[in-house]
Amino acid sequence: MTETVVRRRTPWLAATVHSVRSETAVARTIVLDVPGWPGHVAGQHADVKLTAPDGYSAQRSYSLAAPADGERIELTVQLVEDGEVSPYLVDELLPTDQLEVRGPIGGWFTWHATEPGPVLLVAGGSGIVPLMAMVRERARAGSTAPFALVYSTRGPADAFYADELAAADIATTMVYTRTATDTRPAGRITAADLPDAAGARVYVCGPTGFVETVSDLLLAHGHDAANIRTERFGPSGG
Amino acid sequence: MSIVSRGFHGRREPAAADLPPGQYLTRDFPVLQAGPTPRVDLDTWQFTISNEAGAKYTWSWRELLALPSEKTTTDIHCVTRWSKLGTTWQGVSLDTLFADVETAADHALVHSYGGYTTNLPLEDLLDGKAWIAYRFEGEDLTPDHGGPARLLVPHLYFWKSAKWVTRIDLLNDDEPGFWEQLGYHNYGDPWREQRYTDD
Amino acid sequence: MFIDGNGAAGVFAEALGVDITTAVITCAGCGAGGRFAESHVYDHGPGVVARCATCESVLARIVRTPTDAWLDLRGARSVRIPLPAEGADASS
């Protein structure tokens, strides 16, 4: 099946930080132990809630970065300048700290390892996170679905999961908007950066403008709108 | 009871002032909106007051700017719990706009470009309590904050201060607005913490 | 600025007990049908507003108070929610 049917109340669950690791200078992955976590599908989100001692709370939605490992989940969070939640998650949080999570959320922007592909993933910035969950799910399940990834960042230092992607058996194309390489001048994504990938299911995730641009390029290239799934994140975040 | 996250305080200023209950101080000006920002051409912009008999009193942008304006400095309180102190606005008092309006109605339903609505008692729009504001901190009001003009009713939660205002209907019977229909308080006094319907 | 329906699904799931992102919502305004996931969601305000990706009419609104969820689906002519095949396990 191609989508996930979730019929369940989604209560807030207590989560304990197992570990954290840096992905870039301004992003890190947070590994959480969440007793009662019901499992999830690649591409889904979790809501995170932080509560201050006086009861003030703030919540945000983050993509799950990896398949569930039992009740252990991973989120990758990028710092939003002047944000409220992300600076705490990126700069403050330490192992054994606690927060609350709710999920999984969203069954549309998902990929199941039973699907044969082909699949084209197009990521802008931290939009790589739910797509990385799909790459990891493919490896975990031993799927041979043909995967291609196009990943746009400002420069090499801004890419998440660089070593892991380089080692993965999928065709990865890096697009740098601010760094020229031997094969490509610096600049925003264009039609030339996208592989043919005829008939592929396409997942596009990134800032709203990026998703709009890529969707237009894909449609102009003849991709069927029904095969394109998008996830935009606004300047909301924080 | 929620789990407290060590070291998390949120991005709030310490409550240095006497704020309404449950509010926190902010220095920036969060943009809250329920839909796309309307782009309103000043050549076609209109503001209309429609009384309970259907009579319409309409001002063009040029006519609005020709009316005497007031500057007011006031605190604003958003139901999403931020308060901002000492904001300075310029606009036309609704007392000026209502000067020639014949009405015996008690209720007002405010309409915005884009379809937003909010209701309040007519008396809360009068006696120096409300303005059609078009300048904020000495600058033209930007579209994301409700420009070209928004209602300013700072003694109520800020969702009553409708952005992109274009019409006020005077009604004999109260009619709940966009958020008042869906769980938010009909009146919305921040000092009585009237956030939700049953507060 | 809006986000995708995906990003605001939590509050709907909490209220309805179903994942609304896969539901097909037909706009009462223009008649266009689309996945909730692809609607335009405005979540910076007193509540969450989902708008039609075609005509920007309000499809659904939800407000979470401390005690209740208030849901308005008047902007949807229909909401088609995929369910597990009868007899199947309740999740996935």
Q: What does this 3D model show about the protein?
A:
Chain B: This is DMSO/TMAO reductase YedYZ molybdopterin-dependent catalytic subunit. The complex is a heterotrimer of chains A (238), B (199) and C (92). Chain A has 2 domains: 13-105, Beta Barrel (Elongation Factor Tu (Ef-tu), domain 3), CATH 2.40.30; 119-233, Nucleotide-binding domain of ferredoxin-NADP reductase (FNR) module (Rossmann fold), CATH 3.40.50. Chain A is 17% helix and 34% strand. Chain A is built from 4 helices and 11 strands. Chain A is globular, with a radius of gyration of 18 Å. Chain B has 2 helices and 11 strands. Helices cover 9% and strands 35% of the residues of chain C. A 5-stranded antiparallel β-sheet of chain C has the order 1-4-5-6-7, with helices on one face. Chain C is globular and about 40 Å long. The model of chain C has no long low-confidence stretch (mean pLDDT 88). Chains in contact: A-B, A-C, B-C.
CATH superfamily membership of the largest domain in chain A, which one?
Nucleotide-binding domain of ferredoxin-NADP reductase (FNR) module
Assembly type of the chains comes to heterotrimer
Output the radius of gyration of chain B: 17 Å
Number of strands of chain B: 11
**Number of self-contained structural domains of chain A:** 2
In the CATH scheme, the class of chain B would be Alpha Beta
Overall structural domain count of chain B: 1
Strand adjacency order, main sheet of chain A: 4-3-6-1-2-5
Keywords, separated by commas or semicolons:
heterotrimer; A: 238 residues; alpha/beta; 5-stranded parallel β-sheet; 11 strands; 34% strand; C: 92 residues; 5-stranded antiparallel β-sheet; 3-stranded antiparallel β-sheet; 1 helix; 8 strands; 9% helix
Brief characterization of the structure:
The complex is a heterotrimer of chains A (238), B (199) and C (92). Chain B is built from two helices and eleven strands, in the order E-E-E-H-E-E-H-E-E-E-E-E-E.
Topology:
The complex is a heterotrimer of chains A (238), B (199) and C (92).
Chain A: E1 13-24, E2 27-33, E3 45-51, E4 57-63, E5 72-78, H1 86-92, E6 98-105, E7 119-124, H2 128-141, E8 147-153, H3 162-167, E9 171-176, E10 201-207, H4 208-220, E11 228-233
Parallel strand pairs in A: 7-8, 7-10, 8-9, 10-11
Antiparallel strand pairs in A: 1-2, 1-6, 2-5, 3-4, 3-6
Chain B: E1 24-25, E2 46-50, E3 56-60, H1 61-66, E4 70-77, E5 82-93, H2 94-97, E6 107-112, E7 117-121, E8 131-136, E9 139-140, E10 150-152, E11 165-171
Parallel strand pairs in B: 1-5, 2-11
Antiparallel strand pairs in B: 2-3, 4-5, 5-8, 6-7, 6-11, 8-9, 8-10
Chain C: E1 3-4, H1 9-16, E2 24-27, E3 33-35, E4 40-42, E5 48-51, E6 58-64, E7 69-72, E8 76-80
Antiparallel strand pairs in C: 1-4, 2-3, 2-8, 4-5, 5-6, 6-7
Region (Disordered) (chain B): 1-21
InterPro entries (chain B): OxRdtase_Mopterin-bd_dom, OxRdtase_Mopterin-bd_sf
Protein name (chain B): DMSO/TMAO reductase YedYZ molybdopterin-dependent catalytic subunit
